[in-house]
Amino acid sequence: MTTIRRFCCNDLLRFSSVNLDHLTETFNMSFYMTYLARWPDYFHVAQGPGNQIMGYIMGKVEGQGESWHGHVTAVTVAPEYRRQQLAKKLMNLLENVSDNIDKAYFVDLFVRASNAPAIKMYEKLGYVIYRRVLRYYSGEEDGLDMRKALSRDVEKKSIIPLKRPITPDELEYD
Amino acid sequence: MASKFGLAGGIPERKVRPIWDAIDSRQFKNALKHVTTLLAKYPNSPYVLALKALVLERMGKPEEAFSISLNAKDNLFVNDALSIDDLTLSTLQIVFQRIDRLDLATECYEHACGKFPNKMELMMGLFNCYVREYSFVKQQQTAIKMYKLAGEEKYLLWAVCSIQLQVLCGNGGDKLLVLAEGLLKKHAAAHSLHEPEAVMVYISILEQQAKFGDALEILSGKLGSLMMIEVDKLRMQGRLLAQAGDYTAAADIFQKILELCPDDWDCFLHYLGCLLEDGSIWSDEAVNDPVHPPKFISCKVSHLTDEQFDSRISIASAFIRKLQTDAFDNSIRCPYLAIIEIERRKHLRGKGNDDNLMDGIVQYFCRFGHLACFTSNVEMFFEVFTTDKKAELLEKLMTSNNRLSTPPTKTLGLSISLFKIKQQLLLGDMFKSSASDVEVSCVQMFEMYCKNLSLSKDFDPQESMHGEELLSITCNILVQLFWRTKNVGYLVEAIMVLEFGLSIRRYVPQYKILLLHLYCHFGALSVAHEWYKSLDIKNILMESMLHHILPQMLSSPLWAELNSLLKDYLKFMDDHFRESADLTYLAYHHKNYSKIVEFVQFKDRLQHSSQYLVARVETPILQLKQNADNIEEEEGILQRMKCGTDFLELSNEVGSKSLTLNEDLETRPWWTPTLEKNYLLGPFEGISYCPREILTKERETSLKRGIEKKSLLPRMIYLSIQSASSSIKEHVEVNGSVTPDITLELKILLERFAQFLGFSLGEAIEVVKGFSNGERSVVSDSNLIDWLNFTVFLNAWNLSSHELVHPDRNERKPIIWNILDSLLEKYILEKIRTTEPQLCSPWSDIQLLMQLVTEPLAWHGLVIQSCLRSCLPSNKKKKKSGSVYQSSSNLAHAITDSVQQLSLVLEDVIKWISEWNRRSEDENMEGILFLLRKDGHDDGPGRVFHILETFISSMNNAEVGDRIYHSLKSWSPADVARKIVRGKLKVLIEFSAICESKLKLLQSLKQKVAQL
Ligand SMILES: CC(C)(COP(=O)(O)OP(=O)(O)OC[C@H]1O[C@@H](n2cnc3c(N)ncnc32)[C@H](O)[C@@H]1OP(=O)(O)O)[C@@H](O)C(=O)NCCC(=O)NCCS
After folding, report:
1. 3-state helix, strand, coil in chain B (%, to 5)
2. How confident is the model at residue B772, as a pLDDT?
3. Which of A43, B163, B210, B355 could be joined to A7 by an S-S link, Cβ 3.0–4.6 Å?
4. Of B134, B58, B50, whose CA–CA distance to B98 is shortest?
């Protein structure tokens, strides 16, 4: 049961129960504020009946030509609200913004290769593993680059998996 | 990149590029070499000078950088137009910003814009300077100029936002909004608007002036179509209609949103509010603190007639029923909760029917009772029931629970909810029921956890397990049992339960937070700190979460750990203040205008954070504590903090500031709902799971006073040292170097300090004098340190002031000094005598003991050092030999006495600490585990622990899975007990080291006095 609205600065002071999760990174301020200043439509928060923060999604849109795409930088839901389709709603929202407003070709994201629950979720939501990025996380853990094609990519070219893994310095965007 | 370098200052790009390359790759020495070469050729070029300054700054030479950049600036001003270009200016700007002289950067741009009034590039730079300086008026003026020049929507919006900032974050009056509106109106009429964010700002400007009709017109017109997210637009429309008082239309809009998003609870509340013509949600929104929004919905009794009310309610019910039947997805909860809310509104109107309300809750329970958020969803409805009805509801819930047949995970969830509900409904009952009844439910919870572990046996360790909450509940009950019985065994048991849980899965933040508070309470602060660190609290989380550990650390001897907590936190905040304006500029640049006010307000909010101010004050105090045993070092530190004058200023200002409280108190355990409160320290009162009384205003006032008082300390310490040294010099030096100012200032501060104790200075002095007769009724644990600090400073003042008439001039020691020494002695010895050196002794007394030694005693030590130093024949004074010795002989006696007395006290403390170490670790560990052994008798702690041990020894890996099996097999309660012991001893050992160092100081003073 949720109200989904744009994320605002004050939410940063209220999201501790979500961010205490060990898989959810607490970034520095300029990171959050850059996202807010540049892509406010890609940063949404879900709020529950007692006004508590249940989860949020942050992302952006970038790229040139056919790699113009939406990107999910973080999606996270507090443990007590999991498995209630919340992440799915947030993801759908971001996909809609990318698809309808920004006319992007696809949405992509990186996930820790060990984060089985999240990978399962993304697969359920229609994402495929596009490629593996070696030692993407602090030079240790591999990341999976997952993608989902949007309506503009009619032939679904953007999601044809790469044959070989790549290294972080081969990434087009960070 | 090439164009970036242009032909700044007439210097070819290829000559500059190596410098930038070197800077970018952080090869500053190399960069400097290149700059120096280039400078030989262009000695007066502002650009090259600016580059040199930049390199020097990056090399960590801010002073040199400053002087070179001033040089560059001067040349910029004298030179002709040739050298003024954006690259030179922006390079200088970077340097000035890095050395915190934004004003100089602004001057450069102002000068440049004066020379070239129509260059957009320069004006943009100037605008940016004003953004950095938060000069909203000048921002507005510059933006208007740019708008006139370029006619772009963007610059108009920059001006409009600058106006909005003046109104919302500056001291501009509301009338300015009319101006902003006029600008927008005119532009929109001629050119329309093209950015959705521009429309949003336009609407907010109108809304702020309560011109809701106009705002609605904009929204429904062509401009409104720019807003792409349909629901957002509808929400805005509904809000405006409601604020305009057109509730019927507003209700229609919210109905539409609910059809699109049937799970949007906020929207439902708005819908219902509009139907019942109750606008309180909107007006409260303005009043409430956005960081601590109310948990419960506010609504007022409707003014509608009975018929109207009934018909509106039935409209709402019908619509919600329809939403229920239409719902395609059975995870949608809002319509089911909405039915309950509608019943509640009826209740408030006096038309309620308890049975209907109960039915609604029971239904909701049957559908969603297994969810972790069930209890928090429905708790707001319990208030309408009488005690009897609550019992009835509970009965009904239990019956329906028994009838439900669900898969095991749901059954578990339902049982947990039921238990939580029971606690809520029977609030207070827990306290009436006997300790053993409470213990029974505690045992049940724990058993339920163990029994259900198998449900999660195949889970990825990343994933939350079923029933994790049970251990938090168990812990909470155990702590309550401790509170009732004061039997520390329950605390140890609670610790064991949580450690057990964390060994099963490492990542449960709730357990860690509970544990950290338990360890603090137990005195094992270093272990608490470890758990705090494992929460990985960084960046903005520090602002909301540091309160879990900071207060305890502030009074602890773990100085290194405290220092790094404070340093990290202040760095984060200061970095943000430094970069926030640049990020605001980014919002201007990307035309996300609505974020501009938001960013500035947020920065203001953090700047007024009470925790930030506390950290700023506590940081110097920590430094002073750390160096108090060496007066020269201490003086160096005081010099570096401008002898405490900055903090004095802070102290003067803080009263008139409004502070923000940004702590997330929701994450705190029930027994310490705010930083200032710890129920466990007081007698059992019967509160548990209470609504957290966040008395924000009250907290703000007391925090302010705390900061006001604390920030006097550095200055008072400084003045005390000065005062003490002039006490003797006045006999020595005839050239008038005694500074009456110091004595006077110290007196003024003493007056202020006395006020914090609730007295005038005269009265406070009398109180202190009364101490010598044993009259100490005004002193309590909460003001003990303040009284002693006051006495320390009073004594220091008395040394240079003649105001207090001394009947005892010829005695060995001034009377205040005497009183002070005996007070210190008395309280310190009292603490160690009443606190057995046992692992389970209450920690709060020890905390006070540590404060006594590290604060008043330390400051007093500085006064003694200062006195002694002025008695010692320094080289200079040797010329006037003889006089020093004679006139200081009284003082020397006083010092000798004092040193003697305090040494004995410290020796006692050190001896007392060593008592703690007498037993071996194993003995201590056994001692702790013994608290949990039942050995036949039935009451007291240990039942849960017994189940825990039995479970571990009897579990098998088929049942709980390999992972859990192995982690539990390698877990041992004895290790936990050892950890408690070590944690506590570590703190005491640190404290002992502090005492040793002070003792050493006193001994060296003794020797020096002997040489006199
Ligand atoms: C991953 C995460 C965001 C999922 O949030 P959520 O709100 O529980 O997910 P949803 O309820 O919307 O799940 C949608 C679907 O994804 C799948 N899914 C979600 N979590 C799953 C899990 N733990 N295991 C298996 N499948 C899962 C399911 O198919 C689910 O539908 P279902 O419940 O009807 O079967 C949440 O677990 C989380 O916050 N994790 C920590 C942060 C993180 O890892 N973020 C991702 C990396 S950026």
Report:
1. 75, 0, 25
2. 86
3. A43
4. B58
